[in-house]
Amino acid sequence: MHEASIAATILERLGEHPDLAGRAIRVVRLRVGRLSTVVPANLEFMFGVLAEGTPLAGARLEIEEVPARAVCDACGTPFAVDDPVFLCPACGSGSVRLESGRELTIDSVETDERGTDERQEADGAHQGAGKGPGRE
């Protein structure tokens, strides 16, 4: 279950983010690509387990699934990728460029500071957690 290492990296990155120091984080919003092989329920579970005893204990993950999209290199047609076989629906070419669907980024976090609601951007602090073999 690679969701455990992803959750650990998210916690580490948020803990290191200077704009979040001393703030209680309530919500962490993620953008997870459909092709990232992340199981959202597993990620939420592991985040909760690993956050216990840290300043992020009790924080909630909100996960937005990013659809997979590609562009045909042969004819330039953009299309949604619904199949594991990436063929251009317009010309049938297999020469396509995946434009979205493998990302895993922290989009934003919601914090409390001295009883006031504030929304702090995490500056894509987790870019790269979705990288590895078979991922961009």
What attributes characterize this protein structure?
disordered C terminus; 4-stranded mixed β-sheet; 3-stranded antiparallel β-sheet; hypothetical protein PF0899 fold; single chain; 136 residues; alpha+beta
Spatial strand sequence of the major β-sheet: 2-1-6-7
Outline the biggest β-sheet: 4 strands, mixed
Radius of gyration: 17 Å
Unreliable stretches covering 5 or more consecutive residues: 114-136
Mean pLDDT: 81
Alpha plus pi helix count: 2
CATH architecture of one domain: 2-Layer Sandwich
CATH topology of one domain: hypothetical protein PF0899 fold
% residues in beta strands: 25-35%
* Percent range of helical residues: 10-25%
**What shape does the CA trace take?**
elongated
Give the tally of β-strands: 7
Structural class: alpha+beta
Helix and strand run = HEHEEEEEE
- C-alpha end-to-end distance: 20 Å
Question: How would you characterize the overall build of this protein?
Answer:
The protein has 136 residues and is α+β, with helices and mostly antiparallel strands. It has a domain at 3-67 and 101-120: hypothetical protein PF0899 fold (2-Layer Sandwich). The chain contains two helices and seven strands; from the N terminus they run αβαββββββ. The chain has helices at 3-16, 40-51; strands spanning 24-33, 60-66, 69-72, 78-80, 96-100, 104-113, 116-120. It has a four-stranded mixed beta sheet with strand order 2-1-6-7, covered by helices on one side. It has a three-stranded antiparallel beta sheet with strand order 4-3-5, with no helix packed on it. α1 packs across α2. The longest helix has 14 residues, at 3-16. The chain is elongated, with a radius of gyration of 17 Å. The protein starts with a helix and ends in a 16-residue tail after the last strand.
